[in-house]
Write a structure and sequence with these properties.
globular, 203 residues, alpha+beta, four-stranded mixed sheet
């Protein structure tokens, strides 16, 4: 889980647009019941349950306080955001690999969170084709002018400017390739959500 713990006094924020007079306000909270989570994501472009691999220690923090993205020196491949898997098997594998990469987590067990996302305008890309061509051109021009930041962060900023709130990364499946072989080879489809408060854990 590439995130850091949220301060104790973090209250979250209202994700909904201003409601008409008389409507009950719906506030974000890090954990919801399945019924609440389904209501939270009822207008989302991604309605399915998603999965986030992490450790028991971080799970407790996320479900109790939520999480925010930690600034990284190295950019994420598909941009800056919360990475969610469509396949529970892959989320479990990510959790296992996270523990192997960080010896400080060896005393914590790996686990998987069930997640609902509230995304309204995801960019859908094919992993084999990558980001839109004009984004790559903008990035190369920025590099030529001295931009020294990470590619993923630059693409995330472009995506936000163009009105996207997330990225769906589709992993193509080869002809006659089994599901297991596809999952092992590609890691499965992913959803990258830019705003962590657009997702909730299901209790």
């Amino acid at each position: 889980c590439r995130c850091k713990l949220v301060p104790e006094n973090y209250k979250g924020e209202n994700l909904d647009k201003p409601l008409v007079k008389g409507d009950k306000k719906s506030k974000w909270k890090p954990t919801m019941t399945l019924k609440e989570a389904e209501s939270f994501s009822k207008s989302s472009k991604v309605r399915t349950t998603l999965f986030h691999g992490t450790t028991e220690i971080r799970k407790n923090s996320i479900t109790n306080r939520g999480f925010i993205l930690e600034p990284k020196k190295n950019g994420r491949m598909w941009g800056d955001g919360v990475y969610l898997s469509y396949q529970s098997e892959q989320a479990s594998e990510w959790a296992r690999l996270t523990m192997l990469r960080d010896w400080s987590k060896v005393k914590s067990k790996s686990t998987t969170l069930n997640i609902k996302a509230n995304v309204k305008n995801p960019l859908i890309i094919n992993s084999g084709e990558g980001f839109p061509k004009h984004w790559t051109e903008q990035f190369m021009n920025a590099r030529a002018k001295g931009y020294s930041g990470e590619r993923g962060t630059y693409y995330t900023n472009i995506a936000k400017k163009e009105g996207y709130d997330s990225i769906i990364v589709k992993m193509p499946r080869k002809i006659n390739e089994s599901y297991d072989d596809w999952l092992i080879r590609t890691g499965g489809d992913q959803l990258v959500v830019f705003n962590a408060k657009n997702i909730v854990a299901i209790s």
